[in-house]
């Protein structure tokens, strides 16, 4: 009787949450997912370090510059051809995509390390191309798994988010340089091993934190992004100061660092700084059904929607199918401008080691240049901004439904530009000048193990050609500006704000129903 008359136990106060439940809520929340994505991006920039370890590959395996540039082009091919990762992400969970990327990263760079350290017999050139392509391609799985998921979880702030994430990729080169100098000294062979195992471990640690969640509005969302911006800027400044301090005793360092920074001239910060107006006034495409009578509401029908109505394209900002986007004029313009801009930039970055060698810089100073390129990839206004803008523009023009595939298709022009400019032009011109120098010394190619060019003439004509190609790409980009000027004057983010409000109303309604049910049971 006493038990029946005892009053019911009051519910625990709202502020008293068990530590385990709180930790679980944090680890599985949207914000920790974004933090984990930043860490994965900070480990996904190994492709920027090719200029550091390319010298050891060239000297150990006896390659000429054209062969080394061929390896660099396959690296760029792997780093930019992410269609496979995008298609896999369409039909598999995110954790599976990240695990595949981890395995490919370790396998590719570990095989290169074995070849360079001569723990295995000397591989053929095609085998080395396959290894470096595999290792670099793992970057796309990290991009697809984390970047695409973050964009879907924060669609209204996609510009700031993509700018920050690509900024962390840019900084990763400087981070890896400092780590390998601290752990291994100035041993470029060990750097190859480091970029093989560390990014793989990072992806595995956060493999279950990266997942798509229900969109909800946070009142201080923009403030959080600015706080991450401050953290990333502080990290970049610390890395820059540390990098410069390591080479202060050398008299020519300051001048050369300025020259390399100007040559690198890159960019993440500009995108993040200018995103708030883009977020508030530049808005988001309203997603509607693809015209032509087909309804793509169910996930099971996405393949059928993708292959139909190719000619009957939606308006800008609506959900394009993959073929509709790839065959559009806007995508063609993006392809040409990416070919010119990223192709030239990748060529310069890949040849940075040989540029320093031709001008007589020591290996440690060359590593400093590569590290500064990664840092200015964050602060600059050229190479760094291109991929960031490419990803944002694709999401704004063609929608988010097939974004994991489309943003990987958008960067296919980059390895093509790298191959033509790097291997067929810059590499050939370098080898031609090196052979001229051998002839003047009365030597032939068979008399030297490594074909090396010394002097300013090694890259003079090459960079004049790259400057002309970049100018053409800039003119082509103006066409896209004129075509999309009216579209960007509209509210392209309205649809996602409406979706967030609908989700909030649904949450409030479900909470009201649950409270009513609890009261009914207690009574």
UniProtKB/TrEMBL annotation:
Q: Where are the transmembrane segments?
A: 31-53, 95-116, 167-185, 191-212, 224-245, 322-349, 369-394, 461-481
Q: What are the subcellular locations of this protein? A: Membrane
Q: Which residues form the Nodulin-like domain?
A: 30-248
One Pfam annotation reads Nodulin-like
What InterPro entries does UniProt report for this protein, alphabetically?
A: MFS_trans_sf, Nodulin-like
| UniProt-listed CDD domains | MFS_Mch1p_like (cd17354)
Q: Does the keyword Protein transport apply?
A: no
Q: Which GO terms describe its cellular component?
A: membrane
Q: Does the keyword Transmembrane helix apply?
A: yes
Classify the protein's membrane topology as the record does: Multi-pass membrane protein
Similarity section: Belongs to the major facilitator superfamily. Phosphate:H(+) symporter (TC 2.A.1.9) family.
What's the name of the protein?
A: Nodulin-like domain-containing protein
Organism of this sequence = Sesamum calycinum
